[in-house]
Amino acid sequence: MSMKHTAALAALLLVSATPFARAADKPTDPQIAHIAYTAGVIDVEAAKLAIEKSKTKDVVDFANDMVRDHEAVNVQALDLVKKLKVTPEDNATSQALSKAAQEERAKLAKLEGAAFDKAYVANEVAYHKQVNGALETLLIPSAENGELKTLLETGLKIFQGHQQHAEHVAGMLK
Amino acid sequence: MKAGVLIRPLAGALALALVASPALTATIEVTIDKLVFTPASIEAKVGDTIEWVNKDAFAHTATEKGRWEVMIPPKSKGRITLKKAEAVDYFCRFHPNMKGHLDVGP
Ligand SMILES: [Cu+2]
């Protein structure tokens, strides 16, 4: 095995703790669409839990912002796949994301009050960071269709904005 | 120029009158598209109106921390009339990575 291959393998092993590691093979456009859509749905579900459980206005407001934005992105994503006649394709990355999210929601569901607020917002920061990384390094570079790429780039700006917004809310909770 | 010297004491009062007259104020448009304010930096005068035109499907704000906030709903507009000569950095509260700047002259 050449040095180059060893380095590539090492890089793979390093990132294998995240759900996105399984997408080491370049994902196809139908897979990318599915991953991006799933990533949005996950954040909406977490937000709905926060709206239900939190009594802190800043947290509930933030969660409402997440629902509104991610639902809007996903409407655009659905319109685009329809227009491109692409059927989003389920894949290992989407499944790993959903599984990790389910576990996180189960953890959050057991928390109450300030402990819930803190854990939810901390997870929002971490989750948006993770999705940003995947968009930048994997999903956007892999997208073949120009319109899909543009939508992902807008999605990246939304996610980056949410990460900063979540960091701001986390600061207020301290 | 002699005339200029004579007129100068009047210039301040005249400028005030001009500012007070709505016909001479401008509406300056800032477009929001894909989470970007364009132009990002605006030069304006007291009395001018800034109008943000949101082409996105997302709600945005133009916010100066702790002072004012304009809500700009999706596919809609928001506006503010400038009341003070100052330099202002503003951002979107929902997406703090969106930043803009106003240079408001007297
Ligand atoms: Cu915004």
TrEMBL record, chain A:
InterPro entries: DUF4142, Ferritin-like. Residues 28-168 form the DUF4142 domain. Residues 1-23 form the signal peptide. Keywords: Signal. This is DUF4142 domain-containing protein.
UniProtKB/TrEMBL annotation, chain B:
Pfam families: Cupredoxin_1 (PF13473). CDD domains: Amicyanin. InterPro entries: Amicyanin, Cupredoxin, EfeO_Cupredoxin, ET_Amicyanin. Residues 1-25 form the signal peptide. Residues 11-102 form the EfeO-type cupredoxin-like domain. The keyword Transmembrane does not apply. Keywords: Signal. Transmembrane segments: none annotated. SUPFAM superfamilies: Cupredoxins. This is Amicyanin.
